[in-house]
Amino acid sequence: MAIIVSYPIPNIADMPLPSITKESLVIFPTETVYGIGAFLSNEEGIESIYELKGRENKPLSLHVANPAEVDKYAEYISPVAERAMALYSPGPLLMIFTAKKNVKLPGRLLMNGKIGVRVFSNFIGASLINMVNEPLVATSANLSGGTSPRNFFEVPEELIDGCDYAFDNGPTVYQKDSSVIDFSSGVPVLLREGAVPYDELKSVLCADIRRV
């Protein structure tokens, strides 16, 4: 059963929390939906996410605390992707890149040599990353096939019971899943239209964007 930490609170560092370590499994809010995550080096914890959710072999995404971290994991960031990062990182956009070949990453993060990376704007997730000094490998905190939780009370008890910490920050800002855009090829591809609409992306990025 998780230790449940309720907010609002001005700074996670002010909380009298027992030590959060690289082995901790956490439920946390983002600006879009609640997520469940394990730290990057915790491969056992990453596998636990699949077991708890009943998730198929879909890849998880990497969540980092600031945009400068993206370059550590992306082989190439195109000018269009750089514009997207300037506008939506941190923010509600998950960006897919070709993964750097010289960086060792858990297989659960990769699909066809690609990696999805997102930069938090919610301070709780960013604070957790900074406390442990490792990115979070994460996905939405729902059972496989279920609706992504927009509020803490929508997170399934089964997931809370399987985690070490669960952070309740009330309703999320956007009340939608993140938008997902693939920058790994010449033309960006919108894989999921969420908090950032297709028309907005096409307009502000000044680029042709395909959608599937």
Automatic annotation (TrEMBL):
Q: Name one GO molecular function term.
A: double-stranded RNA binding
Gene3D superfamilies assigned: DHBP synthase
Report one GO cellular component: cytoplasm
Q: Does the keyword ATP-binding apply?
A: yes
Q: Which UniProt keywords apply?
A: ATP-binding, Cytoplasm, Nucleotide-binding, Nucleotidyltransferase, Transferase, tRNA processing
Pfam families under this entry? Sua5_yciO_yrdC
Subcellular location(s) per record: Cytoplasm
Q: Does the keyword ATP-binding apply?
A: yes
GO BP terms, alphabetized: regulation of translational fidelity; tRNA processing
EC number(s) recorded for this UniProt protein: 2.7.7.87
Q: Which domain of life is it from?
A: Bacteria
Catalysed reactions, semicolon-separated: L-threonine + hydrogencarbonate + ATP = L-threonylcarbamoyladenylate + diphosphate + H2O
Domain (YrdC-like): give its ranges.
10-196
Homology family: Belongs to the SUA5 family.
Q: What is the protein's name according to its record?
A: L-threonylcarbamoyladenylate synthase
